[in-house]
Amino acid sequence: MELVYLWVADYKNIKSQGFNFSPRFRCEYDEDTKELTINENKDYVSIFPDNINVTAIVGENGSGKSSLLISLLARERGFIVVNENNQLKIYNKNVIINTQLQQLRLTSKFNKNILYYAMDSDYLLANKRHNQWIHIEQTVQLYVENYLRIRELSFNIYNFEPEFLFYTIVDNDIIPSQDELIDGLMESIIIQTETDSDTIYKIIQELRKIDDEYFLYLFYFFENISILIDTFSLSEKIHPKDGYLIFSKHDVIKFLSENNLPFLPEDDFQIVKDNQNRKIPIEKLEEKFGDNYIELLFDRDKIILEFNLFANNEATFSSLSHGEKTIYGILLHIVLFPLDNFLLFMDEPDNTLHPEWQKKFLHEMIKLLNVHNKEAHIAITSHSPFILSDLPKENVIFLENGKQFDPGIETFGANIHTLLSHGFFMKDGLMGEFAKEKINKTITLLNQPKRLSRQSIKYCENIISVIGEPILKKQLQKMLDSKRLHKMDEIDRLKADISVLHQKLKKLEGRK
């Protein structure tokens, strides 16, 4: 599937704008006449494999890059043109279009064709029911769930091939500590419940005596201690003579069951508990936990576990850098995505990557898609000149204030400094602001016609000595040497003047 054209009626800072994503076609929509014209570029030669196209979206912060991608998932008016099996189709959201092409309703169902990555995934989280999105935190589950398939596919990166799963149970802190009570929690509990403070304190003291870990686990399903107290009317379950709570885990189990709330049965909880803090062979998980081991371990509505993966050489998933985890997660999701023909949208995936991996990132994705016979159109927003240098300018959308423009540069294989200066809008140069301020002060001093003080000379010497750019350093050193020579000439002139004055003084003294 190839995204050919996107037209956005009004989304954030993008208004009545059309964007061409495929160099194979040139599309234009006239909002007044409602005419859509599409011209095929018969001379276009792609540098990518036949099953892959790549479009980069670049621009300053706030230019509309992320909005452009998200607009496809949003509900606002617009339409897209896609190329499916060499046939152009229009998916439309409430826009009148005069065209002979087939028009289909653009609904959330279309989003199933899109695999989406974004570091800031608030929108995706809010609409996750309709979106297929790359969630790096779910990488461990995805790997475990597809362990045998991944091994068969020889999926490998960073020479990291996990063989073991390791997890710990996240503690539940529903019962407040003594310090928390002293720090004012008691007051908030009293406000939330009708029970007096002495009774609340007694209840909490009794709850703290519970040493049954499964009983304590069940408390996890109550937001706070006040809800627990009110739900089970614990103030009425204090033994009148001995003061202990007439309250059992069976009361909690009955309540959760009657309200259809998910929780682990005690036997399952015990299995999970007994195997925490152990390196468990992934291929043995089903044997150890049963057929439903994925649900048992990864259903966060029932229990929250913190995971890690171990390789035979003791390398761990947690030891990978954030950038490495990002790449690992993205490539894993690509391989395991259920569709073989899809759109891959990535919003600034290179943000946490070392420059070396920024250079390799696009190449790795294209290679992976090819190896696994997947057809995809990659649309990627980026600030990386390395990614831009992998693409012809026809495959780049330059944005400024929500509008596309042509910066007049060639991108493919271009010099990184050129791309930074033009493609990424660093209009004030590529030097850090702190360094620029110091160097500009040095230039100002050296350009002064008057003589420099010893302090100013020393300042210029210190700054010039640490400049890393050789041409700039050499030029400033020449200016400093010229100042020094000028000073020496001035000293020589002063010495000569003094000598003449001495001679005149001697003549005057001789006349006396």
List the keywords.
single chain, 512 residues, alpha/beta, Rossmann fold, seven-stranded mixed beta sheet, 19 helices, 20% strand
Summarize the structure in short.
This protein is an alpha/beta fold. It has helices at 65-70, 122-126, 139-145, 147-152, 178-192, 197-208, 213-218, 225-231, 249-258, 266-274, 285-289, 293-298, 322-336, 355-371, 385-388, 416-423, 433-446, 454-466, 470-511; strands at 2-11, 14-20, 25-30, 35-40, 52-59, 78-84, 87-93, 102-105, 114-118, 132-133, 162-169, 280-281, 305-311, 341-347, 375-381, 396-400, 403-405.
The oligomerization state is single chain
Gross morphology is: extended
User: Please, how many helices?
Assistant: 19
Question: If you compute it from the alpha carbons, what radius of gyration comes out, rounded to the nearest whole angstrom?
Answer: 35 Å
Q: How many strands, which pairing sense, and closed or not: the largest β-sheet? A: 7 strands, mixed
Average pLDDT rating: 84
What would the CATH topology of the largest domain be? Rossmann fold
Strand content is 15-25%
User: Architecture of the largest domain, according to CATH?
Assistant: 3-Layer(aba) Sandwich
What is the SS-derived class? alpha/beta
Q: Strand order within the widest sheet?
A: 10-9-14-15-5-16-17
Helix proportion range? 40-55%
Distance between the termini: 110 Å
Level-1 CATH class name of the largest domain: Alpha Beta
User: Quick one: how many beta strands?
Assistant: 17
Q: Which consecutive residue ranges, at least 5 long each, have pLDDT under 50?
A: none
Number of separate domains: 3
- Per CATH, the superfamily of the largest domain is P-loop containing nucleotide triphosphate hydrolases
